[in-house]
Write a structure and sequence with these properties.
Blueprint (H helix, E strand, L loop, with lengths): L2 H7 L12 E2 L2 H9 L7 E6 L5 H9 L2 E6 L5 H7 L6 E5 L7 H5 L6 E7 L5 H10 L6 E7 H8 L9 H9 E9 L4 E2 L6 E8 L9 H11 L7 H4 L5 H9 L14 H13 L5
Parallel strand pairs: 2-3, 2-5, 3-4, 5-6
Antiparallel strand pairs: 1-8, 6-9, 7-9
S-adenosylmethionine binds next to strand 1, helix 3 and strand 3.
Length: 277
């Protein structure tokens, strides 16, 4: 029985609210999977399993695939579709409510890659979740609406500059890989998509104390319209001011005017003297 017949047999109904447009084209599926240099030591986390078109291909390359699917009505068909794929587990839940560290602790692996083909509005929360939960991810491959892909690859621009931009740029190089036509999905969506790849940076800027940096950057952006002087009042403002002076700036700037390198410098200097965080 093919996938369509299995879905039909289980009375599966496509749900717009979950962004259910399933990818059909084998070439596109192969191209996505090949972006990953997945090996038999890789744990792949797939968010939004759908009818498992990608999952099956990932399973052939990876050591283990851990999939998340919010739609419980896909459980019965997926049990059948994935019957032969012994290295695939699916958790039926909203990925955003999961504790990733807990979910992956039973697996042995050398690296983690994330693949997600999802409604665009949960792309940022997904990436933030991996960053906030400090999961060491080598690569994130996401399929998003074409226009959103441009925004992601231009993330270091000023308009959307916030603490996430800084964390993203600290961890990853971001690039748009290719466009995917709306015609290769069922049901067909109204827009074309693009695949964006986040590659873990090989040469990260040297940070003395990552948690300190994270706290500092988050705190600096607490109230976007306020200055560093206001947002960072719990920190040693004199010291911050003298560090910023070396960049011709001062604590009357807003966080959005501070570069990642400047935040790193501030954090490295403050954490030297055990500044509280
Ligand atoms: N990966 C499949 C493919 O490429 O054909 C399905 C892609 S479809 C665009 C998105 C899938 O993500 C749907 O099956 C949907 O039910 C699921 N989904 C949407 N929001 C989710 C969430 N918050 N957590 C887990 N899965 C979600």
């Amino acid at each position: 029985m093919n996938v369509r017949e299995i879905l039909k047999e289980n009375d599966f109904v496509f749900k717009k609210k979950f962004g259910q447009n399933f990818l059909l084209d084998q070439n596109v599926l192969n191209n996505i999977v090949n972006l990953g240099n997945i090996t038999k030591n890789t744990l792949v986390i797939e968010i939004g399993v759908g009818a498992a078109a990608l999952t099956k291909k990932l399973s052939e390359k990876a050591k283990q695939v851990l999939g998340y699917e919010i739609d419980l009505s896909l459980k019965k068909p997926l049990d059948k579709i994935l019957e032969e794929y012994k290295n695939v587990d699916v958790i039926y839940d909203d990925f955003l409510n999961r504790n990733i560290k807990e979910d992956i602790k039973k697996y042995q692996y050398e690296n983690i890659m994330v693949i997600a083909n999802l409604p665009y509005y949960i792309t940022t929360p997904i990436i933030s979740k991996f960053i906030n939960e400090q999961i060491d991810v080598e690569k994130i491959i996401v399929m998003v609406q074409k226009e959103v892909a441009d925004r992601f690859s231009a993330m270091s621009g000023t308009k959307s500059y916030n603490s996430l931009t800084i964390f993203l740029n600290y961890y990853f190089d971001v690039k748009k890989a290719f466009i995917v036509s709306r015609n290769v999905f069922y049901p067909k969506p109204n827009v074309d998509s693009a695949v964006v790849v986040f590659n873990k940076k090989q040469d990260k800027i040297k940070l003395n104390n990552e948690p300190h940096f994270f706290k500092l950057v988050k705190t600096a952006f607490t109230q976007k319209r306020k200055t560093l002087k206001n947002n960072l009042s719990d920190y040693d403002l004199n010291k911050i001011n003298s560090i910023l002076k070396t960049f011709n700036k001062d604590i009357n700037e807003r966080a959005e005017n501070i570069t990642i390198e400047e935040f790193v410098k501030i954090s490295n200097e403050l954490s030297k003297t055990n500044e509280k965080f």
